């Protein structure tokens, strides 16, 4: 009678050196396993590398050796699934109010809600999520009022404009009060009526709304908001105040020593050029610098004919929030040889950017003198003992604090595009968690997730992955008391 010792694997447990008599019937081995595991012999399923072990088999012919592994499948007596005494209630089946109550009781901050995609509306969804990351924008929107019947209020626009602004405001309120994705049906419909250029379709029997350029859509929305959203008082902050900065621009005719002109202009975003194949841009600051120093053609005030000018720009004031557009889309001519039509192709070149953007080198001398105060104080604070937060809060009530800008901005939100052309692909918004900047929230339409910021490489290099096309930065300031100002600058 040949007997070997085998290893039996059952669920998460492993039994070593279990006796198996090869000349005995398999039922004897089953009884031994029943004593070990509690699984009735009649409900056991045994498997080895040679297949399922069945009653009546000649175990000597299965090639089993000492140490061979046998897997037991079966449930121990008394461990069978039972009908629960109470019906299980899943979190997903709860109402919005019930979910919010549970999260509040457990002190868990719910993720922001997403927006349903209503047919190539990811471009609009991503822009809405970017704007929602700006508290002052939401405050201005809440303080604005629109009355269609009386034709009065913050807006003096047409009925379509007022309806759209009302629907946009209602959508923001709905997103604030929900814990599940929101369907922006009315807002999208009125958006397309307000901006018919974004209501183009593919044509044909099964026509679909086409993809749009998110940056162009943001420009259209901001133009409307700047015109229609105003505070109750003249001194109230406006939408334009959030993004506006002054640019000092000098035009120098490259063929004339005297033909020179300096202009002060309002701007609402910075551009980051991609460079060329021979001279590519690798970093965000390189692309910004390239956009501030370029050659343009315009009519000469001296000769009255078109001439080439060297255009040099400097930032002369800083906005609370800075928009940076990465110029990734460019027109690609049609080709008869390749049989391709003209299209707006995407430059997928990798452009590195960081969480902090220092604009100091791009500023005018007048602005640099202002920034030098904050930058000097910041450096001296680093070298001296810094007061504890509770000490600062205690003094805030009794001392006058000054906000000192340094020219440094902190990244708040990113809009990315995935695909090869502006007329296709997919847009997603990414927003840094306000309470923990090691994490970033991904808004992929109705799917919202929280991931490690270091795992989200959005700098480009691959057309099949998310590539940053717009960046939203927030101005950082340091608060300094009069006493600190005198001490640190002495």
Automatic annotation (TrEMBL):
The keyword ATP-binding does not apply. It catalyses: Thiol-dependent hydrolysis of ester, thioester, amide, peptide and isopeptide bonds formed by the C-terminal Gly of ubiquitin (a 76-residue protein attached to proteins as an intracellular targeting signal). InterPro entries: Papain-like_cys_pep_sf, Peptidase_C19_UCH, Ubiquitin-like_dom, Ubiquitin-like_domsf, UBP14-like, USP, USP_CS. Residues 113-476 form the USP domain. One of its GO terms (molecular function) is proteasome binding. The keyword Transmembrane helix does not apply. Its EC number is 3.4.19.12. Keywords: Hydrolase, Protease, Thiol protease, Ubl conjugation pathway. GO terms for biological process: proteasome-mediated ubiquitin-dependent protein catabolic process; protein deubiquitination; regulation of proteasomal protein catabolic process. Pfam families: ubiquitin, UCH. Residues 4-79 form the Ubiquitin-like domain. This is ubiquitinyl hydrolase 1.
């Amino acid at each position: 009678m040949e007997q070997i010792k085998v290893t039996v694997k059952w669920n998460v447990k492993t039994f070593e050196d279990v006796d198996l008599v090869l000349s005995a019937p398999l039922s004897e081995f089953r009884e031994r396993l029943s004593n070990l595991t509690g699984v009735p012999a009649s409900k056991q399923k045994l498997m080895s590398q040679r297949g399922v072990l069945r009653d009546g088999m000649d175990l000597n012919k299965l090639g089993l050796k000492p140490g061979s592994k046998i897997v037991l499948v079966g449930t121990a007596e008394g461990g069978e699934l039972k009908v629960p005494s109470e019906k299980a209630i899943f979190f997903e089946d709860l109402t919005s109010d019930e979910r919010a109550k549970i999260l509040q009781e457990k002190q868990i901050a719910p993720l922001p809600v997403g927006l349903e995609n209503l047919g190539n509306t990811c471009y609009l969804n991503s822009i809405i999520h970017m704007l929602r990351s700006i508290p002052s924008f939401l405050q201005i929107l809440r303080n604005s009022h629109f009355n269609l019947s009386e034709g009065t209020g913050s807006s003096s626009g047409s009925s379509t404009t007022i309806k759209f602004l009302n629907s946009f405001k209602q959508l923001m309120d709905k997103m604030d009060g929900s814990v599940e994705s929101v369907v922006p049906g009315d807002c999208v419909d009125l958006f397309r009526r307000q901006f018919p250029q974004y209501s183009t379709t593919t044509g044909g029997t099964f026509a679909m709304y086409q993809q749009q350029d998110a940056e162009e859509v943001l420009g259209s929305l901001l133009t409307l908001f700047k015109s229609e959203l105003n505070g109750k008082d003249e001194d109230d902050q406006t939408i334009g105040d959030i993004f506006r900065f002054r640019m000092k621009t000098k035009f120098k005719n490259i063929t004339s020593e005297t033909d020179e002109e300096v202009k002060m202009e309002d701007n609402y975003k910075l551009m980051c050029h991609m460079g060329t194949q021979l001279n590519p841009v690798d970093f965000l600051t390189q692309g910004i610098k390239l956009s501030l120093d370029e050659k343009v053609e315009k009519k000469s005030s001296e000769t009255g004919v078109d001439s080439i000018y060297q255009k040099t720009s400097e930032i002369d004031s800083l906005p609370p929030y800075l928009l940076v557009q990465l110029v990734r889309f460019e027109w690609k001519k049609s080709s008869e040889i390749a049989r391709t039509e003209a299209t707006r192709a995407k430059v997928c070149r990798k452009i590195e950017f960081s969480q902090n953007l220092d604009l100091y080198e791009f500023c005018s001398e007048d602005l640099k003198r202002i920034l030098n105060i904050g930058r000097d104080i910041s450096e001296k604070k680093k070298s001296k003992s810094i007061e504890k937060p509770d000490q600062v809060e205690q003094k805030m009530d009794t001392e006058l604090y000054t906000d000192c800008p340094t020219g440094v901005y902190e990244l708040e939100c990113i809009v990315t595009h995935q695909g090869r052309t502006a007329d296709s692909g997919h847009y997603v918004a990414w927003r840094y968690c306000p309470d923990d900047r090691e994490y970033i929230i991904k808004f992929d339409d109705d799917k919202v997730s929280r991931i490690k910021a270091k795992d989200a490489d959005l700098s480009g290099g691959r057309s099949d992955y998310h590539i940053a096309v717009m960046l939203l930065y927030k101005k950082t300031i340091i608060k300094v008391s009069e006493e600190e100002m005198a001490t640190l600058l002495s």
